[in-house]
Design goal:
The protein contains 12 helices and 12 strands. With 392 residues, the chain is of the alpha/beta class. The strands form 3 sheets. The protein has a 7-stranded mixed beta sheet, with helices on both faces. Strands 9-10-12 form a 3-stranded antiparallel beta sheet. It has a two-stranded parallel sheet with strand order 1-11.
Length: 392
């Protein structure tokens, strides 16, 4: 048996902080501790310039203007800002309907439920068996009361990438605004807010080798939105509170590096994932790949494995030094089946056997071999003890 090793394969949940990012942050954790609002002396001015450099780096990856980028404490906050700001704003022009999908992250779904309690109407659009939004259903659902459409760029569980440009085009032709949760996609696939007809976009730092606790929102120029957090008027009065300078600097550097290396890194990680998928589907019977087979995020491999619980696989993999996930990375406290897997048509029983393995640039072909071999051993051993498998 191959010696136990450590393999981190849950990069959709979070990523390690890159050395270059940490090096960029360090001065602002030590000597450069100025408050960017203290602009009458050099220490504060340098902090402010560092934030503006980071803002420019994020904007460049999105083909946006730096003045359209606002920093937040997380992707979840950015999602909340997009939905709550917009639906309560003058830009909504009194319209009360929000359209979204059944497979969104809980940052969107829970915010949508809260808006329903406030008197807004929400339509949850279905997706097909791959997790792709039906564009005809979207067109038919938009009416004169629709203010905003919110559809994630790519799903955090099954990795399916949505036809964002087409969605944005439909929205603009119908006279409604379009928000996309790009937390999983930013830095991993090419995004262009102008070409894709995007009005609002959410992103997060810890998915691209920056730190946790920092995110950003793109707000297209001209949108009149009231601040969600009031106070000192930071971030051009869009998000008050003293800025987390080190984290913002880290996000900016991570975005810059992703912009430079995205094509090469995506090709490498995609090759690893395809190899992993081939090995697992070949060696583990009654296993299916969930999500779109081709149009999916680089690095994302998600499976439904019959007659075995996802939690069991994750724990057994951990005993072998492998970090993986079952269901949504942000809802692991729940034992209910993943809402995403149910929405794409899997039964409760099948959804309970979900396993998500997400690779990134730190992973190697040797990691792929190790994961596939150990997972096959785990499934074989657990199925031998399973009365459900014996019945099948």
């Amino acid at each position: 048996m191959e010696e136990k090793r450590f393999v981190y394969a849950d990069n959709a949940a979070t990523t390690p902080v890159a050395a270059e990012v940490l090096n960029k942050m360090m001065p602002y954790l030590t000597g450069e501790y100025g408050n960017p609002s203290a602009s009458f002396y050099g220490l504060g001015q340098r902090a402010k310039r560092a934030i503006e450099e980071a803002r420019g780096n994020v904007a460049q990856v999105l083909n946006a203007s730096p003045k359209e980028i606002f920093f937040t404490g997380s992707g979840t906050e950015a999602d909340n800002m997009a939905l709550r700001w917009f639906m309560h704003s003058e830009t909504a022009r009194g319209r009360k309907k929000l359209l979204t999908t059944t497979i969104e992250h809980h940052a969107i779904l829970h915010t949508a439920k809260a808006l329903e309690k406030e008197g807004f109407s929400v339509v949850y659009l279905p997706v097909d068996n791959y997790g792709t939004l039906d564009l005809n259903a979207l067109e038919n659902a938009i009416d004169e009361d629709t203010a905003l459409v919110s559809v994630m760029t790519a799903n955090n569980e099954v990795g399916t990438i949505q036809p964002v440009e087409k969605i944005g085009k439909i929205c603009h032709e119908k006279g409604v605004y379009f928000h996309t949760d790009a937390v999983q996609a930013f830095g991993h696939i090419k995004l262009d807010v102008k070409a894709m007809n995007i009005d609002l976009l959410s992103l997060s730092g810890h998915k691209i080798n920056a730190t946790k606790g920092v995110g950003a929102i793109y707000i297209r120029s001209g949108l009149a939105l009231e601040p969600l957090i009031t106070g000192g008027g930071q971030e051009k009065n869009r998000r008050s509170g003293t800025e987390n300078v080190p984290a913002i600097v880290g996000l900016g550097e991570a975005a810059r590096l992703k912009g430079l290396n995205m094509e090469r890194e995506s090709a490498y990680v995609t090759s690893l994932s395809k190899s992993l998928q081939e090995k697992i589907l070949k060696t583990i019977p009654q296993t299916v790949l969930t999500g779109h087979p081709e149009n999916r995020l680089p690095g994302n491999s998600s499976f439904a494995i019959a007659a075995i619980e996802g939690e069991t696989m994750v724990m057994d993999l951990d005993l072998n030094g492998i970090c993986a996930a079952t269901g949504s990375a942000c809802s692991t406290a729940s034992l209910d089946p993943s809402h995403v897997l149910l929405a794409i048509g899997l039964s409760h029983e099948t959804a309970h056997g979900s396993l998500r393995i997400t690779l990134d640039t730190q992973n190697t072909p040797e990691d792929v071999d190790y994961i596939a071999e150990r997972l096959a051993e785990i499934v074989k051993r657990r199925r031998a003890m399973s009365p459900v498998w014996k019945e099948q």
